[in-house]
Amino acid sequence: MKHIVIINGPNLNLLGRRDATYYGTSSLLDIESDLKNKFSNQVKLSFFQSNHEGALIDYLQQLDNISGIVINPGALTHTSIALRDALLDTNIPSVEVHLSNIYKREPFRRNSYMSDICLGVISGFGPQVYNLAVQALINIKNF
User: Fold this and answer.
1) Cβ atoms 34, 131 nearer than 8 A
2) In whole angstroms, how far apart are CA 86 and each of 36, 109, 134?
3) Contact indicator for 138, 42 with CB cutoff of 8 Å
4) pTM recorded for the entire structure
5) pLDDT in tens, 109-121
């Protein structure tokens, strides 16, 4: 069975308590539960969240036998070349996701260090972005 990891960066552990205008009301556990319910019969799913850049990099560096990555780097999207390099070095097909539409927010949020090395970017659809990303990875030929 194929294996997809869902990686979440800083502050995403606060989903459900953060500004609902941008992030909705679902918690990260709600999102994970929804993904398991929808996709556990098609792929193995693993989840990782950290508020620490180094922990995210360490996690990426230890991945083995992974078919795909869904990553929401949070604010590190706009700042971390180190996280970008670690994601690139995995050579694993990846999809970048954001709950809010980063292109409708502050100008600094419109820049992503991840998007050009990912298969695609899905943003602005709330928790649904994770479902769309997992489905996209499942649908990719030779997955």
Assistant:
1) yes
2) 26, 21, 21
3) yes
4) 0.94
5) 788 999 999 999 9
Q: What is the mean pLDDT of the chain?
A: 94
Strand partners, 4: 45, 68
Q: Tokens 């398991």 identify what position?
A: 36
Instruction: Give the tokens for residue 3.
Output: 């294996």
Determine the Cα–Cα distance for residues 27 and 15; give it in Å rounded to an integer. Answer: 5
Cβ atoms within 10 Å, residue 73: 25
What secondary structure letter does DSSP report for 127? T
Q: Please give the Cα distance from 50 to 5 (Å, whole number).
A: 14
SS3 19: coil
Q: What tokens does 119 get? A: 């298969």
Contact status, residue 96 vs residue 124, Cβ threshold 8 Å: no
Catalytic residues: 23, 98
pLDDT at 52 over 90: yes
Domains delineated in the chain: 3-139 (3.40.50.9100)
Report H helices in the chain: 20-23, 28-39, 53-62, 81-90, 128-139
Q: Widest CA span of the chain, in angstroms? A: 41
